Write a sequence for this structure.
């Protein structure tokens, strides 16, 4: 992970010093702030590869910073890990529903934190950095805007292409309709969550033509995921 850019949003100076030390020693370039407003500005300047975000910070709360970052097209897919003293299940669920990729409860081991950030980045960033995405027998060339399944070209509309790209960037992960709206439609207020169902159905029809196995799993009361076990 040498030279990966990390934005640390933590207003506890002693903890921020400790976390910065461990990540810089592991080869990260760390930018830090303790203020939510400044974090929203820094994210455009630094263009971080990963964000460590304390839930309780000065100004805008960490959970609100997370929500706003997920609504921006430029940061919708940046890995975000929440740091918090709130360990209740309801808090963890709220964090994940807001868009966090992982959730670490204080106190924590800095070495474990570095390892967990590395795991999140290995899962997310390589797919985002490349021009070719693949899962099972589906291949997407993002530069040429082409999709193939089993070697055969599949024609997708622009929205279905963006939707499939998002699934390919996060295989196996379940996304609620609201999260898909944020990621694919940038939470356009004119778009209803039921629109997601329509486009998922169109995507299914396109990639499953010819009685191919359905790779999109519907999870009751949760959303959709790209999953070979579907």
């Amino acid at each position: 992970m040498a030279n990966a850019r990390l934005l640390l949003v933590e207003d506890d100076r002693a903890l921020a010093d400790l976390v910065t030390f461990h990540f810089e020693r592991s080869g990260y370039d760390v930018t830090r702030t303790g203020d939510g407003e400044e974090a929203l500005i820094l994210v455009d300047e630094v263009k971080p590869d990963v964000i460590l975000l304390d839930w309780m910070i000065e100004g805008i709360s960490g959970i609100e910073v997370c929500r706003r970052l997920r609504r921006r097209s430029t940061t919708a897919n940046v890995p975000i890990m929440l740091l918090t003293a709130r360990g209740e299940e309801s808090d963890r669920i709220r964090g994940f529903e807001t868009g966090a990729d992982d959730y670490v409860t204080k106190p924590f081991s800095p070495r474990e934190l570095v390892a967990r950030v590395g795991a999140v980045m290995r899962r997310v960033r390589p797919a985002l950095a490349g021009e070719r995405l693949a899962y099972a027998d589906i291949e997407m060339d993002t530069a040429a805007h082409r999709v193939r399944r089993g070697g055969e070209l599949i024609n997708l509309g622009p929205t279905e292409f963006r939707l499939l790209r998002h699934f390919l960037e996060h295989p196996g992960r379940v996304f609620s309709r609201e999260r898909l709206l944020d990621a694919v439609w940038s939470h356009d207020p004119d778009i209803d969550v039921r629109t997601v169902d329509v486009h998922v159905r169109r995507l299914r029809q396109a990639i499953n033509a010819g009685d191919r196995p359905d790779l999109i799993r519907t999870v009751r009361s949760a959303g959709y995921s790209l999953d070979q076990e579907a």
